[in-house]
Recover the amino acids of this structure.
């Protein structure tokens, strides 16, 4: 729709903030609780000088709750990944499946499934992800590459598969001196750090241990198995012994384990979401990777297992985000009010593309009832009829509710709207928000456009 104050056009079905971003002006921002699960530190950032706010009648304020996963933003990120998966496969057809883990803030850990046509081709796909231009995949800190489709959301299964096949001397790559996500504070300074990639393809090269037996390594207080081949070892803290990771890599008690996570609490290994969050958000590949022996061959560091990832909290890391107990209790008590129909469940697909937390029956009912309520003209032409798209539409649709493959089309999609002189210049009202208002609507159609003109009676 036309902007009453000039400038770019406005979207009739969305709220808009108009203003300017002055060049070279910075102001401090933070600390904020963020989706990494920590309080981001204070830094200088560009500012927006807002001049106008445009909104619909009874507008919904867009907001989300972030913090230590799982929070609302994690579910939104999960849905976005599934929604964009078909497009990703068109852009990168050689990559069969891909998943980034919301438990780690997304950028800290990702997995892809590939199919090698010739030896060592898997690393080409890793470079494809880390070199993605125009998106945020290039911010991935640690990437696992495998060659068999599976539920990528189950990282225990993914990591065990990769460890059984990876020759750590040649299949573990650490690349230093790179850009990092602004919210990742594991690097030497903000926006700087390193990346790692583990290639686990082909036939198995080792049998993985499934149970830890024997005495704990000297200095450790606990150990727990995360998955076959991966062991979590607890203590000492980084402040007490910053060099313990190197000592642990050479200890005979862990010789059979190809990968070890040095953590502050080994109990996190029993819960997948806690483990991923407390490990991959707390280590930087170039600074926190150790091995029994590291030898430079052909300018490539060759790591002799066990490989230890030091995932302990370290000086300079931001504080862990803590949920206010009273707020958490209030949300728990009102959960049935937020989701009165229940049926909140998580759906997963065999190729690792996790589904969104859908309230399936309630959402379907609301879509049908809401579609009827939004129309004054309930003729078949405007009725939100159920359309089967399983055969006719090759991609999942953003406006899909209920069972996959069925779409409820939007009741209206205005391309342009003009406001009368009697309308408030600060408020843009679209058709489905004008119920009960004194505004009436006239529609003028052309073969390529649909113009809505708003006037008073």
């Amino acid at each position: 729709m036309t902007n009453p104050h000039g400038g770019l056009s406005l979207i009739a079905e969305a709220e808009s903030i108009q203003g300017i971003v002055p060049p070279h002006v910075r102001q401090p921002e933070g600390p904020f609780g963020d989706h990494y699960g920590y309080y981001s530190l204070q830094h200088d950032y560009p500012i927006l000088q807002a001049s106008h706010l445009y909104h619909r009648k009874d507008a919904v304020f867009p907001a989300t709750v972030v913090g230590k996963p799982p929070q609302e933003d994690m579910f939104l990120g999960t849905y976005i990944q599934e929604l964009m998966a078909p497009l990703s496969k068109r852009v990168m057809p050689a990559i069969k499946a891909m998943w980034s883990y919301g438990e780690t803030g997304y950028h800290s850990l990702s997995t892809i499934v590939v199919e090698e046509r010739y030896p060592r081709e898997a690393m080409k796909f890793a470079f494809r992800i880390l070199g993605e231009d125009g998106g945020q995949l290039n911010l991935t800190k640690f990437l696992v590459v495998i060659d068999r489709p599976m539920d990528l959301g189950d990282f225990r299964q993914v990591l065990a598969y990769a460890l059984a096949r990876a020759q750590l001397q040649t299949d573990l790559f650490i690349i230093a001196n790179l850009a990092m996500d602004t919210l990742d504070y594991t690097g030497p300074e903000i926006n700087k750090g390193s990346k790692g990639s583990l290639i686990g393809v082909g036939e198995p090269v080792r049998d993985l241990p499934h149970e830890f037996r024997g005495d704990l390594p000297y200095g450790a207080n606990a150990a727990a198995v995360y998955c076959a081949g991966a062991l979590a070892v607890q203590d000492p803290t980084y402040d007490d012994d910053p060099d313990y990771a190197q000592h642990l890599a050479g200890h005979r008690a862990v010789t059979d384990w190809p990968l070890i996570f040095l953590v502050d609490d080994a109990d996190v290994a029993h819960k997948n979401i806690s483990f991923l969050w407390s490990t991959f958000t707390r280590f930087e590949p170039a600074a926190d990777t150790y091995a029994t022996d590291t030898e430079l061959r052909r300018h490539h560091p060759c790591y002799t297992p066990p490989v230890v990832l030091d995932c302990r909290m370290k000086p300079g890391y931001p504080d862990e985000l803590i949920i206010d107990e009273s707020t958490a209790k209030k949300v728990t008590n009102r959960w049935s009010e937020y989701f009165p129909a229940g049926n909140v469940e998580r759906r997963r697909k065999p190729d690792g593309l996790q589904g969104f937390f859908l309230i399936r029956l309630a959402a379907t009912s609301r879509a049908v009832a809401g579609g009827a309520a939004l129309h004054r003209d309930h003729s078949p032409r405007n009725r939100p009829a159920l359309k089967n798209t399983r055969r006719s539409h090759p991609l999942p649709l953003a406006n899909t509710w209920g069972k996959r493959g069925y779409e409820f089309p939007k009741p209206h999609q205005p391309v342009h709207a003009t406001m009368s002189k009697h309308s408030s210049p600060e408020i843009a009202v679209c058709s489905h928000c004008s119920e009960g208002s004194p505004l009436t609507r006239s529609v003028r159609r052309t073969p390529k456009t649909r113009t809505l003109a708003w006037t008073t009676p």
